[in-house]
């Protein structure tokens, strides 16, 4: 019994210290940009441990009936596991600098989800006589002293640029994910178009260079391609490839279109009449 009491006291002390210091008093096995994420995970783990102890002590066996509360604890545990997996993969693959945007994005998302789950626990954990303290004080402190900020636009842009500019990195991160090769399928068409656009970039750079050096006149669209082919800036094969790329690009950005007659037809899904177009 006293061993368990000592365990709870240690968890409480550890949680308070790490919360007040925002995890900076925790140790990290690495240095650099990712050290703070190791510390934040240690902080999240300490908070999880003490809140699990408190919840078990307050609710006891009835905790099983509080499925939303247990679900939030499960979310915290799952996201801590996934954040740990992100860090583990980064270390196992040799700490590649080009992977940093992916690592930071995954960690920020995971910590934000952990924070969201903690906020839900503080808002909904009913402790007789102390609900006001848990929701009002601990909940407010949790939001003010959050585990992570939202994902910034700069980080999102870095991630988007990485998957578009570095096809090797893209292939490595999607290893094991089914990507159809048939360009008749939407995803397969998008993937093929991306590869062709990257390959045609080299050809288009030759054309832009020729325009800059005034070897060919500055024109638009197919007229510029025709001029570049006529002046031997690009070969006939390159000319054909760029035209095919433009055709693929145009097809890739098209969306489904339905006529009014098709849209007004009654549709049934599992015996339920679908909504028709409003008048």
How would you characterize the overall build of this protein?
The longest helix has 27 residues, at 186-212. A hairpin with a 2-residue loop joins strand 1 and strand 2. Helices cover 67% and strands 1% of the residues. Residues 271-275 have low confidence and may be disordered. A two-stranded antiparallel ribbon has the order 1-2. With 279 residues, it is mostly helical. The chain has 11 helices and 2 strands; from the N terminus they run H-H-H-H-H-H-H-H-H-H-H-E-E.
Question: Quick gist of this model?
Answer:
This protein is mostly helical.
Distance between the termini: 71 Å
Largest sheet: 2 strands, antiparallel
Quote the average pLDDT. Answer: 85
Which of globular, elongated, flat, extended, rod-shaped describes the shape?
elongated
Care to count the β-strands?
A: 2
Largest sheet: spatial strand order: 1-2
The Cα radius of gyration reads 28 Å
**Strand and helix order:** HHHHHHHHHHHEE
**Approximately what portion of the residues adopt beta-strand conformation?**
under 5%
The residue fraction in helices comes out at 55-70%
Number of helices: 11
Category from helices, strands and their pairing: mainly alpha
Which stretches are poorly predicted, pLDDT < 50 over at least 5 residues? 271-275
């Amino acid at each position: 019994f006293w061993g368990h009491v000592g365990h709870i006291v240690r968890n409480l002390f550890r949680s308070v210290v790490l919360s007040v210091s925002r995890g900076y008093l925790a140790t990290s096995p690495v240095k650099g940009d990712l050290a703070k994420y190791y510390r934040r995970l240690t902080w999240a783990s300490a908070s999880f441990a003490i809140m699990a102890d408190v919840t078990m002590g307050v609710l006891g066996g009835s905790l099983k009936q509080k499925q939303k509360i247990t679900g939030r604890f499960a979310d915290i545990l799952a996201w801590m596991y996934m954040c740990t997996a992100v860090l583990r993969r980064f270390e196992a693959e040799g700490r590649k600098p080009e992977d940093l945007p992916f690592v930071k994005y995954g960690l920020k998302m995971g910590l934000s989800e952990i924070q969201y789950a903690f906020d839900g626990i503080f808002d909904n954990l009913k402790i007789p006589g102390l609900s006001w303290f848990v929701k009002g004080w601990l909940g407010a402190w949790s939001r003010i002293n959050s585990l992570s900020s939202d994902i910034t636009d700069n980080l999102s842009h870095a991630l988007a640029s990485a998957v578009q500019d570095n096809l090797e990195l893209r292939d490595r991160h999607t290893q094991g994910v089914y990507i159809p090769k048939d360009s008749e399928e939407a995803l397969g068409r998008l993937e093929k178009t991306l590869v062709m656009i990257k390959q045609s970039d080299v050809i288009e750079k030759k054309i832009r260079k020729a325009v800059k050096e005034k070897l060919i006149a500055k024109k638009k669209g197919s007229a510029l391609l025709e001029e570049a082919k006529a002046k031997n800036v690009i070969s006939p094969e390159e000319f054909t490839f760029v035209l095919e790329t433009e055709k693929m690009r145009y097809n890739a950005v098209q969306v489904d279109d339905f006529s009014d007659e098709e849209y007004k037809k009654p549709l049934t899904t599992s015996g339920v009449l679908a909504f028709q177009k409003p008048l």
